[in-house]
Amino acid sequence: MRQLPRIVIEPLVRAALLEDLGRAGDITTDAVVDPADHSEAAIVAREPGVVAGLACAELAWTLVDPRVAVQVLVPDGSHVEPGAAIARVSGPSRAVLTAERVALNFLGHLSGVATGTATIADAIAHTRAQVCDTRKTIPGLRALQKYAVVAGGGSNHRFGLDDAVLIKDNHIAVAGGITAAVGRVRASVGHMVKVEVEVDTLDQLRELIATGADAVLLDNMGPSLLAEAVTLVDGRMVTEASGRITPATATGLAEAGVDLISVGWLTHSARVLDVGLDHLS
Description:
43% of the residues lie in helices and 19% in strands. It is an alpha/beta fold. The strands form three sheets. The chain has a six-stranded parallel β-sheet. Helix 9 (202-209) runs parallel beside helix 10 (223-233).
């Protein structure tokens, strides 16, 4: 799993620090803590989960003060249990305390995304299917959230409107049908661009197969209907299931034989993983 480059994450971390520090900085810490004080602390998991976002946390501290050192004890993608030390932080006490909330906000949120992804990935591990994300991401955080999905054992769907075609129901309605929509796309985009189409019924799927599309999004189909759809496709397209999928329902859908299961809540509603900073000295 490749770490996101600093050029991607630094503007996001800087924006979060600026939001928190406001016009006058950390007036509480500056009043309470002597500038000469030095601290050592540990980032500790309060509950089980999968770690993601350590680079963001480290950058939050080092942007406030480059003298802060962060020693990563378990890398992104690691499963941790309650009480596990994830990293150690040492440096000037003022900087350690000032950047704490921003660092933990990134780490807790992204670890939550990774943990949610892992619950689906583990549930379908015995099948051929992979869990993937969607574009239902928090504005501005898409790259970070999609990175966290990979940390949790998932894969990425398209990153934006410009890197792949996904013809959805409203596109089909405006175009006048699946065949017309796919035809217009093929006449417009280059040969390197993949084309996926959303369908709700087997009749729509039959029409789509004849167009030679690259992938099909099978929306809100139960396991038995999905199995029929997979049989119809017969390997001619990548098959993707979507629609209010939970850890409880993912297994049955994956066992229907689809290639991908896309889950929006992994990013738009991820539950934060509880992590904290424990002062050591």
